[in-house]
Amino acid sequence: MQIIDGKAVSIQVKQEIAAEVEKMVAAGQKRPHLAAILVGHDGGSETYVANKVKSCAECGFKSTLIRFEDDITEQELLDKVQELNNDPDVDGFIVQLPLPKHMNEQKITEAIDYRKDVDGFHPINVGRMSIGLPCFVSATPNGILELLKRYDIETKGKKCVVLGRSNIVGKPMANLLMQKAYPGDCTVTVCHSHTANIKEECLQADIIVAALGKPGFVTADMVKPGAVIIDVGTTRVPDATRKSGFRLSGDVDFANVAEKCSFITPVPGGVGPMSICSLM
Ligand code: GUN
User: What is this structure's pTM?
Assistant: First the structure.
């Protein structure tokens, strides 16, 4: 069994991006500028956005963090989106999700100019991705493809089970893995809360991508010997032994599944760091 070291790969990818950026700037091109909008004080979102800003610095990007309290109106947020759409210095931007309940996330997402939608959430980018056209691709599935590539993992003709059907991970992941490409050319099954016999589906899989947000859901009895296991779960579970009061738990029972599989991503240090470097 080999552990897929997403942390190490992400450091390497960011160094590659930084070298490319310095070449661009030396050639007289503009330094890339990423802006991020954060509404409210959700703990997970604060951490993600802080890591995105830190990664921008590591890659030599300019970054701008725009913060709003969670009582901002939807119109005020739409106005800021429009301002960033029209700002020629901003190359791309993200609106960190989730947004407060009184906002329509889909309306905000669709207000972003798809040419600046580096999250790849705008329907134009989702549509282009699904038919294999150049576009911005959701960062987490894209980071997983990069890991499969960098570990030289065969995907052609493999049976892949994606657990979870979210717009951010499950759906784009399934779509990308079925594309005529490497990594891709998989036969993909998407399982969700209404799937009958998830265990039987998983036992058929050469590759499992677990993105359900259910700690320890994938147990050793669900895994075919030699399968590749990609764990997207990052649920915060209470842990009194940690200074923060919590630890991150993946969707896979790592200790027992690791013994059975060929490759596995740990949590933390697997998919998480790749999502951010993929956004860069
Ligand atoms: N919330 C959780 N993941 C993401 C992401 O990739 N982008 C944004 N904007 N919000 C998120």
Answer: 0.97
